Amino acid sequence: MIDEIQVKDVALIREASLSPSPRLTVLTGETGAGKTALVSAVKLLVGERADSSYVREGAKNAEVRGRLFPSDPAAEELVAVRKVSADGRSRATINGAMASVSELARTVGPLVELCGQHEYQSLLKPAEHGRILDGWADLESTVGAAFREALADARAAEAALEELRATANASNAQLEEARFTLQQIEAVNPEGGEYEETRDWLARAEHAEVLARNSHGAAEALSGDGGALDALNTAISLIEEASRADESLAPFAASLREICFVVEDVSRDMAGYCDAIDFDGESLAAAQERMGQLMGLMRSFGPTMEAIFERWDEAAALVGLVDDADENLARAEAAVEAAEGALAEAAAAYDAARIEAAPRFAAAVNEVLGRLEMGTAALVCTVEPLPRESWSAAGSASVVFEFKPGASMQPRPLARIASGGEISRVMLAIKVALGAKDGTETLIFDEVDAGVGGSTANALAAVLAELAESHQVIAITHLAQVAVLADTHYTVTKTAGDAPETALTPVEGDERVAEVARLLSGTATETSLAHARELLGQ
Hints:
This protein has 19 helices and 15 strands. The chain has helices spanning 35-45, 101-107, 121-124, 126-137, 143-168, 172-188, 194-205, 208-223, 228-243, 250-276, 281-301, 305-323, 325-371, 414-417, 420-434, 454-467, 480-483, 509-521, 526-536, and strands at 2-10, 13-18, 24-29, 61-68, 78-85, 90-94, 97-99, 112-116, 378-385, 397-404, 412-413, 442-446, 472-476, 488-494, 502-506. Helix 5 runs antiparallel to helix 13 (325-371), helix 6 (172-188) crosses helix 12 and helix 13 (325-371) crosses helix 15 (420-434).
């Protein structure tokens, strides 16, 4: 829902601010006053393409700032800004963060829909008709979702089958390379961590003599005759004897005793290490040969053991797929067949639901068209199942809206037969039929009442007011019947001179009476003022 729109230096507009009501807001003014410029400003806000023509002459850039509140109470306020420079370059921000125009369209676009005679592109695209019907009949989250899930499963199964076929048809060179890789690595058959263990063992084995000599020498130096332990024990005895005369020396003897325990442990460990050294020539030769094999693999398929294991897995997978191609293909083909069967069932349910909903939806729209006094004109909604190759996320059937200008006339596509005014009112009728199910929160109608008068104007005003019960509606109108039903009323005026400016002014009380009187007769006469007060209920 739009809370506020601020416009600066857009086309004819120097500066304007619009704070619509939650329900029906109308903008009125003389022809050429610049009402369409406001629509252009909103186009910038919802992410439509822009060029330098949007910038007011003499200005450096145009800026539109919108403050929106999604109807979801859990959603946060949204502030979107779009700037267009005089050279046509565009910048956008969303809640202060830089954003692309496409991000602006994805974020703001779904919240605001422009409903002018030239903005009904979605209504003229058959691809959108299915989405509208699904939204009205609540099919999107039921049979529609089931169909799309089944379609995704079928596509995944088909992709898996194609991948298997491509692998099975791998070139002889690829297959031979994989077989050679597999043969070479399996001949050595390395194990995880084996390279590191062999490397460390060899480092010890190749220096066995030095390790044995030094570990034995260290043990002797610590605990042999005349070694460190003998010296420490002698020192302990001397200090203990002296402590009988001076007790302060006793802690030093205790500290040396603790050191003796550490020295004894190290001496014992060194002796054990020396005794464990047993690297015979045969074991050394075997380890050196194994290291050579592992390093040979690393040179050919490395540079690391991790890379070797990856090459091993890849080669095994390719050879396995080719060797088991028939069995794998049979399984994949069965999976495709099962997925296609499930998809066919989902498509049948989806098509049946759409076919059942189509005439009910058309009747709901035509009821509104009847209230708009469009005679025997009617919307026709047809659903035609599509061949399997044409199925997509949009569905397994084509949904088409056609228009009958009269009961005796053949229905034809909207784009081929409906006038701008007719399309406007068909869109209005569809929006009323959708009601709260329509995902768009704000609708901006640009002269939906063009060419309308008399009792039809009263009907159109009533329908817009009804639509405002489920949407925020902003209507640019020239009909007094529409203006008097608004919750908020603005006038759009343009100053005279070489550099005209458009002003946007809220009107209430006598000012609003005068504006409604102008809409009724072109001037504010006593008669038109009285009629205006009557329409406004004053």
